[in-house]
Amino acid sequence: MNADNRRLDWILGGAIAALLILPWYKIRGGFFSFGWIGDLFTKSDLWPATVQVAIGRWQLWPVLALILGALWLRHARPSGADRGRWLVWLGAAGLVWLIAEGLAIGTRGWNWGLLESMFGEVAGQPAFGAGAVILAVAFTCLISFGAAERGALKGDAFILTSISMLILLVATFVFYPILSIFTGAFQDIDGAFTTEGVARNIVDPKIWSLSCLIGGPSCGVAWRTLFLALCTATATTGLGLAFALVATRTAFPFKKSLRLLTILPIITPPFVVGLSLIMLLGRTGTLTQVIEGATGLEFGRWIYGLPGIWLAQVLSFTPISFLVLIGVVEGISPSMEEASQTLRAGRWRTFRMVSLPLMAPGLANAFLIGFIESMADFGNPLVLGGSGGVLSTEIFFSVVGAQNDPSRAAVLAAILLCFTLSAFLAQRMWLSGKNFATVGGKGDGGMHAGLPRRLAWPVITIVTVWSIFTLVVYTMILFGGFVKLWGLDNSLTLEHYAHAFGITWGEDGLRWTGVAWNSFWTTMLIALIAAPLTAAVGLLTGWLIARQKFPGKAVFEFVLMMSFAIPGTVIGISYIMAFNLPPIQMTGTALILIMCFVFRNMPVGVRGSIAAMAQLDGSLDEASLTLGANSGRTLRRVILPLLRPAITAALVYSFVRAITSISAVIFLVSAKYNMATAYIVGLVENGQYGVAIAYSSVLIVVMIIVIGGFQMLVGERRLRRRSNPPAAKEATA
Amino acid sequence: MKFRTAAIAAGAALAVPAVAANAAELNMICSAEVAICEKLVGAFEASHSDISVNMVRLSSGEAYAKVRAEGRNPQTDLWWGGTGDPQLQAAAEGLTAEYKSEHLAELHDWAVEQAETSGYRTVGVYSGALGWGYNTDIFTKKGLKEPTCWSDLLDPALKGEIQIADPNSSGTAYTALATLVQLMGEDEAMDYLKKLGSNVAQYTKSGSAPVKAAARGEAGLGIVFMHDAIGQTVEGFPIKVVAPCEGTGYEVGSMSIIEGAQNPDEAKVFYDWALTTDAQNLMPEAGSYQVQSNKAAVASEHTPDFSKLKLIDYDFAKYGSAETRKALLARWDAEVGGRAAE
């Protein structure tokens, strides 16, 4: 039996089992609670597809017929291009039918009046369940297996299946929700089509006004956001590069703690940096008072508005750019720099002409991420926003605020998308057609050149000053959790911690009496499930984009970046709009949170692995393939070990973001699955800063522990032996 | 497939008794302060051991957005608290269900009126009046006199000291806008707000943020609901609460059952319970300084006596309606704008 037949057997077996055993429709209590088995004989919605067909759900006949057709093909025809073409057609027809019948027939019959008048009444159906999901996967596999038999992409079924699965997932979890929100823009409350809202908002001077350039009061929110994002991206890229250089190429004494320090801001829940900046630099802030007392100047309220948001964003996003850049700076082959120095170029010239250009992909990625993060940032503008606000908060308030205008939200979201996507395009155009490979299979045993002196001093100074500032901000945060009432009653207390995380030992054993436990455990569970999924999907996608050629790749990459470019607020709303009704219904479950995190945070894993893979010479893959490994094995044994920094970054980032993100989550939390940040926002709104900060501090500590765990689990990438002596020395000392 | 069958069988054996023992569920959104929400849920679960409550706290705007987005397939059963306007709007759109509680007769007139306005799709649970809180430290230091009337707020000496929320985003600020319109007439109110604008340092997004800023000395005075200001005073901040001498408006915090809820019976049990004296007496304990809707409930000692306030006859039906709101906000945008004197 050849490989073509074997994998077909697997997938057809799974599909038939799903049709015969698994419930076709969604189960209200959740599939894995297994509570439904008790009701199996009484409730018809729990029955598998074959029984559903028998009791009159005619819309499932084509599904059965298509699977039977595939079975017949498997046994009657030999594997080859001819059968392959048929399989592709069968799979595609199956998917199309699933989508069509799922969208057309809702809980109460036909979703569109037109169909009802054409075909008459039909019984409503619940959302897709386990059976339907497995069938969708099976149809997708049929497409890719068929394509493999036809010889597409050299007949590599692994790559084909990965691609088609990713397309299916991205279409479901990125494209479909976005589509829902844009159709929402053209609907009024009862679903009728209207262009009134969009027409009114798209020309609004509050968005587009440029009057501040000619002395007017303020510019439109679109221009403010763009200006802010450019400033933030420039500052974070510069600072991130400075930190990366100091960490790898100087004799700076506190490198290890430097790394920890740069991790701190990303593991900080939103609002907290903003809050502590207010406590520090606000009108009555500690630092403001000290400076005003010493100089007699009056600073006033400068922190509220763009300067404050900028400062908070630079504090928050510098570490992300550091994480992106450190891998790139480390990965530059020392032999290039050595060659330059052998040719008698000075250190400065080497840095400027050799090292810096080789860092270009990293710098571009760091800039892009800083730009997009700033555009999508929600927590900091919410706290420090001043009167104007930025696009992401405007979107939020146009949905939840008193004006309640979904079409305004859609228009603002579209503007935001245009900005982020143009940044993405510009970055691609700049980098396309250049080669940055420096990690090759060739022996390569040099050491990185130190920084030229004229660069080293300013860079070290900047890093030191910034580190001290960060430290002060964090001391404020930690301290705030122990202070009774900030700024008023500075006596120390543990009551905030006791309130949030109290445990009592009662007669019926341990009781978690603290108010925070519930949301805390939910958050941990969801973050720990989401992180590895995000990393896996992100790295696989990155590998496909960087290493494989397939039709539609550019579009694929584009749609992926879109989910990152859309602010969480919009994602949250679009997820509720898309996944509250059949065919896919996930609101109120943990799954919607997990999926939201996976597809929202995946792009960072993708960018990271693309940047890292740009440095791995393609000859490594070719060598592995030539030696007889297939593409899956090459990915696992050659690429993945070399991508360890990227894997760590993806794991850390997705875990942390699952815990700290707020804007999307605030719509997706339910009474049963409440997340820590949503809870903290409530505390902040209520002015309970003490408990909010105590809770945040606990989250920070937990994240540090878990990040350490990830780092140990994945390990470090070892490129060359001689770069290790300093570490070895530290170990022995 | 053997494994799966075995797993299902094992799951069935484990799950059946678990289901039988399962308590009924109630999913509720709470739009008041977290402390009150938790207090109510805790007390309810203690007295109704057969119902377990899943509670999530969302601001009233977020809650409305969620209820509306989930409209055709609600995941929430009950919505307690928060400004009345979004609940009225939800009622007008048919997102909430009609229900007449047996306790309706025990309630204050304004709570019953709220129910009548909405066609019994919502009911008042508490009420609070609009006013402001000012930071006594800053006022003493700058030698400013106590602002007791709306007109005092136009004093040029207060330049850059006042905060109020943006009515586009905050229900509190919209109540203030509607109050001034009802107090002065629309043109005069817009004129007043324009003049006030030159004293306003920042139009915040959240309704209660101004007085929190004032409490921490970031601003001198915040125009908010009085119970929010009292909360800061009780916490120990140097905030003095003022009820404007010309008269003022108020909000009615409401409660609704969601139309098409999955647990309507449990929702009704909670609804009835939340209107009782016992339940409403819990609110002051949790640091809520509103007036409860049950006539027999005892308010906190800090709560301003409604009978001594000069309350306007707030027209909730008119100023809660979508058309009036849109027109007023459009006018506010054009004439006052969210532009502070920064």
From TrEMBL, chain A:
Keyword 4Fe-4S set for record: no
Pfam families, A to Z: BPD_transp_1 (PF00528)
Keywords: Membrane, Transmembrane, Transmembrane helix, Transport
Cell compartment(s), UniProt: Cell membrane
Bilayer disposition of the protein: Multi-pass membrane protein
Listed GO CC annotations: plasma membrane
Entry's Gene Ontology BP terms: transmembrane transport
Domain ABC transmembrane type-1: 222-427, 520-710
Matches recorded under InterPro entries: MetI-like, MetI-like_sf
Annotated transmembrane regions: 7-25, 58-74, 86-107, 127-145, 157-179, 226-248, 260-282, 302-329, 350-372, 409-426, 455-483, 520-546, 558-578, 584-603, 646-669, 689-714
Homology family: Belongs to the binding-protein-dependent transport system permease family.
Protein name: Iron(III) transport system permease protein
From TrEMBL, chain B:
Any one biological process term the GO annotation gives: thiamine transport
InterPro entries the record matches: Ferric-bd
Cross-referenced Gene3D superfamilies: Periplasmic binding protein-like II
Transmembrane segments: none
Keywords: Signal
Keyword check for Chloroplast: no
Signal peptide limits: 1-23
Upper lineage: Bacteria, Pseudomonadati, Pseudomonadota, Alphaproteobacteria, Rhodobacterales
Coiled-coil intervals: none
GO CC list: outer membrane-bounded periplasmic space
GO molecular function: thiamine binding; thiamine pyrophosphate binding
Pfam families named among the record's database cross-references: SBP_bac_6
Record protein name field: Iron(III) transport system substrate-binding protein
SUPFAM superfamilies associated with the record: Periplasmic binding protein-like II (SSF53850)
